[in-house]
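Question thread 4412

I'm putting together a teaching handout and wanted feedback from people who do this every day. The idea is simple: show students a protein as raw sequence, then show them the structure tokens that encode its fold, then repeat with a second protein so they can compare. Below is the first pair exactly as I plan to print it.
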Amino acid sequence: MLTIRNLKKSYGGSTLFEEANLQINYGERVALVGPNGAGKSTIFRIILGDEEPDKGTVERDEWTLVGFLPQESEDVGDFTVLEIATGRAGLIDELERELKAMEDAGEVDSQAYYEAQSKFDALNDPQFEAKAKKMLRGLGYPAENFDRPAREMSGGWIMRAHLARLLVIEPSLLMLDEPTNHLDLMSLLWFQNYLKNYSGAILMISHDREFMDAIVDSVHEISERRLLHYTGNYSDFEKQRQENYERQNNAYKNQQKQIGELQAFANKFRSVSSKASQAQSKLKEIERMEKIEKPMAPRKPFRFQIPEPPRGGQKALELDGVHFAYGEHKVYEGLDLVIDRGERTVLVGPNGSGKSTLLKLLAGELSPQQGKVVAGHNAKIGYFSQHRSATLNPNNSVLTEVLEANPNLREDEARGILGSFMFRKEEVYKMTKVLSGGEKSRLNLIKFLVDPPNILLMDEPTTHLDILTVESLILALENYAGTLVFISHDVHFIKKLAKDVIHVANGSAKRFHGDWDYFIEKSGAGDERAALTAE
């Protein structure tokens, strides 16, 4: 279906990868992994023909139809959600123009013509609108939003409309760049189950290890400018990678020991006439050896200690008889809840049940219509949300923003933390006003960690983080001395941190005094993803 041969790509004298080979067969599910900046998205652009390699080839079977979901959405103009999902948002007209141009140029036998014709036919299928609506519903869209202008929706909702269109076209090779970034728990679970039964091949870049474990059957890692192949899902890859490193490192050490012994003999006896020939023979033996390069150890998460927050009272936060509604929609009536100092609590429940609302009430971002929210003695509350960028000074650099958050932090310490959260080298001097939404989210997260409150409330903190950075965040929060309440759809993150679970549904907040495994057992949910959204 798709074959990459001896691919090489460099930027400004720095080589991302060389001699890279990759083959994807029909029906295979492949993850492309590697650290931020390793070249994963570059390989995608080369496959799509948007960028040329310095060397090597990309070969596609003649009848392979490729569909691509980027991380960010393009401008949607005045089109509705359904028009985007059905291709009536300009795509059908664009394909028609492409087809006519290729027909006029006599290129009707080309791969490009086949691909454009296939997409055009799919979008003109009489059943396409019904299929698009089905996909939109699966991805969390209520039917009343189908005819809303897409510009009124957030970027995440717009991406779901593009994803719906892609799934209805059903390309034989589905290329996904961080597809779970814009999905909530319910839509992620639906999408994951949909892909399990998808008939085509899948090539994905993702930071969600649970998602990859459920979908992929092979992993290709960009490491040391090579593309290395592993069989199995992401967990299998991690195990194999560590075993390979240990095996190669042992072989390197054994060879170095042998070289050392041979060299020592030669050094000792090269001046002794009766042993000189033997000494020379040892040196030639060293020369004849095929030298084993010292392998690079797998990257490890960055470790840093969150400063000790001020000590608060035993009762950190309390909700007493809280009523809250959005207009006529009642979310909570008479809700009582106590969060004690030092608790590490995850909020779970179905989409729209009020998890984020509860977190905002605890943070003081929302005020109850009845009842009260009481903060404990000496409470210092920090609320982290993906959508809070207003706290950044637009005239500060990334580095200055962090140093101002904690004046006791040395510059090298700040740069180390920034590097672990994907702000590397000259990127620390970027002004905050030019950062992307994901970069602003990461920078806000760093500010919380270097000057922590004693009550930390976090809504989906792992979005926009790669797998290694998620591990760095876990390590930091494991040693955090304050109170933590968070929402996440990352099961790995939850299992590492949650010691208490609060299930939010139907206006109630039921506490389970135990970790994630305890909640799985008591809730009767057989699947960990399903448990996140159980009624």
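The second pair follows. I'd like the answer to focus on this one:
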Amino acid sequence: MAGGKLTPRQKMINLMYLVFIAMLAMNMSKEVLSAFGLINERFEAANASATSTNEQMLQALDTKASEAKGEFVAAAATAHKVQAATKKFYDFVGTLKAEVLKGVEVDKETGKLPFEAMDKADNLDHSWFTGDGYTTRGKEVMASIEAYKAEMNAALSDKKYAPILNELNKKFDLSEVKDKEGVKVKYLDYHFKGFPAIASLAKLTAWQNDAKKAESDVISSALGKAAVSEASYSKFQAIVALDKNVYFQGEPVTGKVVLGKYDPNAQFSGFQGPGRLENGQAVIATTAGSVGEQTLSGSFNFIENGKPIKLPFQGKYVVVPRPNSANISADKMNVVYRGLPNPMTISFAGIGDNFVTASAPGLTKAGANGKYNLNPGSGTEVTVSVSGKMTDGKTVSDKKVFRIKNIPAPLGAIGGVTGVQKGPKSRLEVSQISAVLPDFLYDLNFQVTQFTFKVPGQAAIVVNGSSVNGQCKAALARVTRGDQVTISNIKSKLIGGVGNLVIKDAAPVVYEIQ
């Protein structure tokens, strides 16, 4: 408008017109200046709130990293790098704001800045700009922004922070800016050169707000991403939790399948139960007790957000007898003897002795669980019936038949020796007549009550008791060498047995006189 082929007068008019427009533009209204002041106040309040909130979130992230570890440790490290970069840049911008306010006096009554009087641009224009370039201070401002961006880029290398980083780089893009006429203008020139002090102050406070927002976004993202990662199904395992660990054939198998995870970084303040903590889990170490259903219980104890938490647990398992011998039976040898307390061990595999009941004629308990005595009466067979109550409340039963036999006939003995014996008649006179059962399952003792004493050529003598009497000795006086004395019809009774039990006569014993 001031160029071209114009007369000097026209050029002067046009120049004066431009000066007039510039003066109008510089004569910014008081309302606009106050609006910038209010905007600055809003940013200042937001920055103070963001600083407090960010500190609280970072503290929460540090607590999680200390307690839960895992992904929270790396997230906390990133957040601290961002906090350090933000503080450095935030404090530097604070020094720039101090430049803007140099020579500005705060109202003593209200404590506020004189917004309407802050219409000059002298402070920053003289400090930052020289001709078409930047002063040393101006270059320092540009370098500080670049350093801040570089530190943030280095801290946020993980792709999950890309949106935050893109927004930050966009807000602090230091490229030249086209003005309304399409002319490229340097970054600081476009935003600060010639602007009123209150506008520059608001712009710098906005820079601080942008930095605090980026810091807040990073901490929130770090905290949230770590929590999501730790809660991801990929960190869990499907765990089968049956109601007990031993089942009988045909019994319903009950339990549940749950999702859980073994966290090697889990920090517990204590563990109560039969075992020890190892790599974020309790390793059970105990000894199986008595046969039957047993209970396993305890609790995990840990600290969360400064508060003690106690997680109780309880499980069941079944103890069965240790298989230390094979179950071998001779089908034809299932025999019990009449008149004797036949010892028996009765049990059900997998069922505690206190839940087993046995019954039979003549069957009685013999002290310890599972121990019985069977003293059968008349008849040729006896049936032992057994029932057991399982852990699910159901009852199982079984039975077994035993043959009843009388005690076999004993063997007669002279001086404890059976069979044909040889010796002087003097030994026979003083020997005891007895009855024995060699190689029998029970250690039985018999008492001879009567026997028949027969010497060749003489009448038989019936003796009551177990010793040779006077008649026998008189008969022995007439025997000669080579004669055989026969002791037969040996009657006896069982010492300690059933009183009315009849014992068969013992086999005869022969004594040859020498």
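Top answer:
Good format. For the second protein you could add a caption like this: Confidence is low (pLDDT under 50) at residues 19-26, 226-235. The longest strand covers residues 292-304.
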